[in-house]
Amino acid sequence: MFKRETTKVQPQSAAPTPSARIETVIGPNAHFRGELVSEGGVRIDGIFEGTVNTTGNLVIGETAKVIADIVANNISISGAVKGNISGNRVEILETGRVWGDLTVSSLLLNEGAYLRGQTMMHADIEPPQLEPPRPHTPAQPGQPGAIVDVEPAGSEPGEEEED
């Protein structure tokens, strides 16, 4: 009489997506110069000069010194970066230092983080429609909002009250 509809839910893997996994690491004792292109996550703990372009996430460790223009999905910065950064989400941690311009959808600066450059949000957000202020017209006596002098009852102007 009553039928229960059931839908089978595919179990989701606990493993991170390929772009979230760190696939490339430049260690703290490495010095790399050139162009780094990756579809997976990248972590830099050493010295890097050049360009970074990844569709995955980028982690710049506390010991890293990076002089590069960077394009990545999510970027977490604990070290020093000099160059322009473009990404979906950029987080500059308390030990992070950035000299360069940012183009982001989301920006998070932790207390102690350093940023010297311009930031542009590239989300499609329309500015509010603001109307120019209307000129102030003084209210006339008898109109709502008018300020009117009121004398106490029983006294004439110029007379003093007696106690």
Descriptive account of the structure:
The chain is an all-beta fold and about 160 residues long. It has a domain at about 20-120. Strands 1, 2, 3, 4, 5, 6, 7, 8, 9, 10, 11 and 12 form a 12-stranded parallel beta sheet that branches. About 0% of the residues lie in helices and about 40% in strands.
Overall radius of gyration = 31 Å
Q: Give the termini separation.
A: 93 Å
Question: Low-confidence parts, pLDDT < 50 over ≥5 residues?
Answer: 9-16
SSE sequence, one letter per element: EEEEEEEEEEEE
What is the tally of beta strands?
Answer: 12
What is the averaged pLDDT score?
82
Tell me the helix content: under 10%
Structural class per helix/strand content? mainly beta
Largest sheet: 12 strands, parallel
Strand content bin: 35-45%
